[in-house]
Specification:
The chain is mainly alpha-helical. It folds into two domains: 1-148, Orthogonal Bundle (DNAb Helicase, Chain A); 202-277, no CATH class. Helices cover 59% and strands 0% of the residues. It has helices at residues 10-22, 26-30, 42-56, 63-72, 76-79, 81-91, 98-127, 132-147, 158-166, 186-192, 211-226, 239-251, 255-260, 265-271, 274-277. The chain is extended, with a radius of gyration of 25 Å. The model has no long low-confidence stretch (mean pLDDT 81).
Amino acid sequence: MFEQLPPHDVQAEESVLASLMVDEEALFKVAPILHPRDFFRESHAWTYEACMALWERNETVNQITVAHELDRRGHLEDIGGLTFLSQLIVDLPTPIGVEHYAGIVKRDATYRQMVGVAATIAQVAYQGGPDLDASLTKAESLIYALRSGERLRDFVHIRDFLDPYLNPGDADTVAPYGGHLRTGFGDLDKLLGGFNPSDLIIVAARTGVGKTSLMLNFARNAAVGQNAKVAIFSLEMAGEQLAQRLLAAESRVDSARLRLGLHSEAEETWTTAPRWRSRS
């Protein structure tokens, strides 16, 4: 069993890559699903990385630009040159359903991770030791990490974590209080250390004390004050209600009067002023 090739589907991988080069919308559908490490063939991973690099730079993704990016990275000849990229496109059945191709690639990548996890668990079992509970906990954590989609990693050099602090040329990397984003409330930022990518911040309180308003303040301060991209998901309020709350807070017009149309002419002028719209 262990002499078999790990699970993979070359045709699905090639269909994903070809779709990226012929359908400008394909990357939007595939990027949340796949990482370069999910491809079985290294040449396919290189090609996917080239497509992603072009996309992140807002450049057109097609066989010519991908070939140029691969050449710049020193991988064009390794994958088979422009002929290989052209053949991918010729062999593509249809770019429709690229999510299906990506799903197959991701599934097989997960199966390969399962093989690796099984080998690691077997090693833990062979090592044995007096603490059975610790061994079982380690095995369970490996399985949980696989199910939750975390990447299983080996040792990471501490420089990878310290580079943002040691590189004085990138002033935007380290924000005040160590966080990437600030709440806009100085005392709270000091307690939380700002918002970091790995954080899960839960705002909890009894009903009617202003949790939604506080959250909207966080979102507003991040978007307006720090040019961050913010998405708000709410099961409590419709989008119109949230937008109205933001408008009321920003214009300092009472939300009840704004909702009922009882605001004054001066207040209406302020809420519709170009200077306010430009900040929204």
